[in-house]
């Protein structure tokens, strides 16, 4: 962990607010926080995806990545969102009902499945950088019944224009693999023309380094973005011109109970 990450995590622990809707005056955002982000209902699709995660964790198989053999169990721990946060992605998609969803940075497909699970009619396209991981993940997604996921393998900046050209609109964009502000800005430059007033953007790793944090600040400042929710591990940006422009620093500890 970098000094930047640790410093901001301490700040998050002591300065984040709006826990369980506290201090939120917007009815839309209050409902989003209390009925979507912090919802506790155990949707049955959760069990399906978590079964795949358990298979990965128990697997003795290794994948060849850049000439190195890496265990699947190690990869899923390193690359996949934990269940509590990945399930937020499911609930966001379930709430906003996007027609087209794009993910960059598939990894082993755990978050991909959560994004695709709410509705089999979702046009879910994920871009994977690594062929062995993509091939492995696809085999398990198909076994789990996810037929609405299309995987594009290759460099994100080369594949993304092709993906977007076939879409009338981009309703939900999940960026899980950005390393710095340049990555974020290049992807957004391609995606923003397709994103309208009902679009949602999720950016992971917004405090991994100073560059990613700066990218998140720029997203918050965009006029097209009306509401942002900072959950530390990722940021959620909502494009809805009817909403008052506001940024929320959301205290989210799903596994903490009082």
Q: Provide the CATH top-level class.
A: Alpha Beta
Distance between the termini: 29 Å
Average pLDDT level: 92
CATH architecture: 3-Layer(aba) Sandwich
Main sheet properties: 8 strands, mixed
Structural class: alpha/beta
- What portion of the residues fall into strands of 2 or more residues? 15-25%
Strand tally: 10
What is the N-to-C succession of helices and strands? Answer: HHHEEHHEHEHEHEHEHEEE
Q: What report would you give on this structure?
A:
This protein is α/β, with parallel strands linked by helices and about 260 residues long. The chain has one domain: Rossmann fold (3-Layer(aba) Sandwich), CATH 3.40.50.150. Helices cover about 45% and strands about 20% of the residues. An eight-stranded mixed sheet has the order 5-4-3-6-7-9-8-10, sandwiched between helices. It has a two-stranded antiparallel ribbon with strand order 1-2. The chain is globular, with a radius of gyration of 18 Å. The protein starts with a helix and ends in a 9-residue tail after the last strand. The mean pLDDT is about 90.
What is the topological layout?
Elements: H1 3-15, H2 27-37, H3 44-58, E1 62-65, E2 68-71, H4 72-79, H5 83-96, E3 100-104, H6 110-116, E4 123-128, H7 131-143, E5 149-153, H8 156-165, E6 172-175, H9 181-191, E7 200-204, H10 210-221, E8 227-230, E9 234-238, E10 246-249
Parallel strand pairs: 3-4, 3-6, 4-5, 6-7, 8-10
Antiparallel strand pairs: 1-2, 7-9, 8-9
Helix pairs in contact: 3-4, 5-6, 8-9, 9-10
């Amino acid at each position: 962990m970098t000094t930047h990450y640790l410093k901001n995590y301490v700040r998050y622990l002591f300065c984040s607010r709006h826990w369980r809707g506290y201090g939120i005056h917007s009815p839309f955002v209050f409902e989003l926080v209390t009925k979507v982000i912090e919802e506790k209902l155990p949707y049955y699709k959760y069990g399906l995806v978590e079964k795949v995660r358990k298979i990965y964790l128990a697997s003795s198989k290794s994948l060849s990545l850049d000439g190195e053999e890496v265990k699947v169990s190690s990869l899923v721990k390193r690359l996949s969102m934990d269940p509590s946060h990945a399930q937020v992605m499911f609930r966001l998609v379930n709430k906003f009902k996007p027609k087209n969803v794009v993910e960059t940075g598939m990894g082993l497909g755990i978050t991909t499945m959560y994004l695709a699970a709410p509705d089999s009619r979702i046009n879910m396209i994920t871009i994977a950088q690594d062929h062995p991981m993509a091939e492995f993940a696809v085999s398990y997604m198909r076994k789990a019944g996810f037929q609405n996921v299309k995987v594009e393998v290759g460099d994100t900046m080369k594949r993304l224009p092709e993906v977007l050209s076939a879409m009338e609109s981009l309703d939900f964009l999940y960026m899980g693999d950005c390393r710095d502000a340049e990555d974020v800005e290049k992807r957004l430059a391609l995606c923003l023309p397709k994103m309208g007033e009902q679009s949602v953007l999720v950016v992971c790793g917004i405090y991994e380094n100073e560059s990613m944090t700066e990218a998140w600040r720029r997203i918050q400042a965009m006029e097209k973005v009306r509401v942002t929710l900072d959950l530390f591990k990722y940021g959620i940006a909502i494009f809805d011109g009817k909403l008052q422009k506001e940024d929320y620093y959301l205290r989210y500890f799903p596994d903490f109970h009082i």
